[in-house]
Design brief:
Two copies of one chain form a homodimer. Chain A is α+β, with helices and mostly antiparallel strands. Chain A has helices at residues 7-13, 67-77, 139-154, 170-181, 187-197, 231-239; strands at residues 21-32, 35-42, 52-53, 55-58, 83-90, 101-109, 124-128, 200-206, 216-220. Chains A and B meet through helix 1, strand 5, helix 3 and helix 6 of A and helix 1, strand 5, helix 3 and helix 6 of B. Chain B binds a DNA duplex through helix 5.
Chain lengths: 240, 240
DNA sequence: GCAAAAGTGTTAATCTTACACCCATGC
DNA sequence: GCATGGGTGTAAGATTAACACTTTTGC
């Protein structure tokens, strides 16, 4: 029979490999003025002077991978109960000029009108998705990948409500869907389709201060809002 | 103006973080006797004595992340033009007893009748998906996640043909879909649906050596077979 | 009363599902 | 000739897409 290695022995023999940094990068989406936005920071690396990059950080040695994007979000925006989804891990050798860094990309949906949102760093700001041409590192590819995943998810999963205030009209919701999907939708069909999903509760309240006939207000059915720690990770913990 | 850091300076200041190992784990699917199989290896760690684990390896310091699963596949099976898809990255602190290892999971589809397939290690063997209860590490969760992603992909993308020989009958194809999806399909509807996708070419050949009326043979339309380096990575390289 | 957006229903087309009989081959 | 699976079509139901008019409010 083969001699079994202890974990300790294996660790020593593989020491050379503990030589790669792991980071997370967050594509933090918000929605304002009928446009989908993403939070970016001015790159502080000479190599990318003048370019913006996604918000990210190295994963701490004592930190679960999935905790890192929540920490980044909290440190940068003050927000804690955010929606996060892991998208893809990028690991080309030369993707980072500082050394070997493999990064796991997450997208996040935040309400930019939340009272808890506070961005103190002057180099951090919201940018229209449609206006972004280049980013530092491989962050444009990461952004595009995350946007595509967002587009694939929104019709099947009630996640876009994380971008809206508690109460919203169907028109606001439709504008948001159009901004995310980048296309126009038929109003009547959209309303039927959304109502049929049974995600919404009619609040029997009306919009106020609109210069036209006010629309009804809705909210997301309670129990459907997904935010906080990722579900896949919860399963993982339970299984261990 | 803020003083910009050079990449070299940043690397030194972050040296503590280059302390996490990165691995890849491959869920290598194949199909035999009307069952979906996965390639597993007997764990050589004391902590998991008697359990099987997925095939994986640490990512080399000079190796693109996406190259690692191809290398693992090649080293373990001799196969080079395989279909691979990245699924998810798992990074709980304690997921690996040897130390801090973050792993990116891939699934792969291989034809177990390929002449190039050779598995020399006696501890490596095929296992029926349906029979697997426990695996070493968090590999059962990784397997389940990959199987779910495979199930979500198969109806929209022509990938399952990587599990079949060059020529196959519609019955063989349907059996394969049923094994992957874990459910029965109506034969007439399945045939209409597959034919409508325009993925197949009728070879005007018949099955041989079957103890019943032989079925027509088909092959995948050329140009639709996806294997080799991952497309997302190719885009990434072009953009750099 | 006019501008602006809210609200609402029907029809046609498409897609999906369920279902049963005759046919070709090996034995 | 019989057992086995191959091959095929239709009708009902569900879903999706296209499309226009009336209503309510602020000004």
């Amino acid at each position: 029979m083969l001699k079994l290695k202890t974990a300790a022995v294996e660790k020593i023999s593989h020491q050379d490999y503990f030589n790669i940094a792991v980071s997370v990068d967050c594509v933090i989406f918000s929605y304002q003025n009928k446009s989908l936005k993403v939070l970016l920071i001015k790159s502080d690396l000479e190599d990318f002077q003048g370019l913006y990059s996604l918000l990210g950080d190295l994963v701490g040695p004592e930190e679960d991978l999935e905790d890192a994007p929540y920490r980044v979000l909290y440190e940068r925006t003050g927000l804690q109960d955010v929606y996060l989804e892991q998208v893809h891990t990028f690991g080309n050798i030369n993707r980072h000029p500082s050394g070997r860094v493999i990064t796991t990309a997450y997208f996040s949906l935040v309400n930019c009108k939340s009272s808890k949102l506070q961005i103190s760093d002057n180099d951090v700001s919201w940018h229209n998705i449609a206006d972004i041409r280049r980013l530092a590192f491989d962050h444009k590819i990461i952004l595009d990948t995350c946007l595509q995943q967002l587009q694939e998810r929104v019709m099947e999963h009630p996640i876009v409500f994380n971008l809206l205030p508690e109460k919203f009209s169907l028109r606001e919701l439709q504008d948001l869907y159009e901004a995310i999907l980048g296309l126009g939708l038929d109003r009547r069909n959209f309303r039927k389709r959304i109502i049929a999903k049974d995600w919404l509760v009619d609040l029997n309240e009306m919009e106020e201060d609109v210069p036209h006939r006010p629309g009804k207000l809705y909210k997301l059915r309670s129990g459907l809002r997904k935010s906080g720690r990722l579900s896949i990770q919860v399963e993982q913990k339970l299984a261990v």
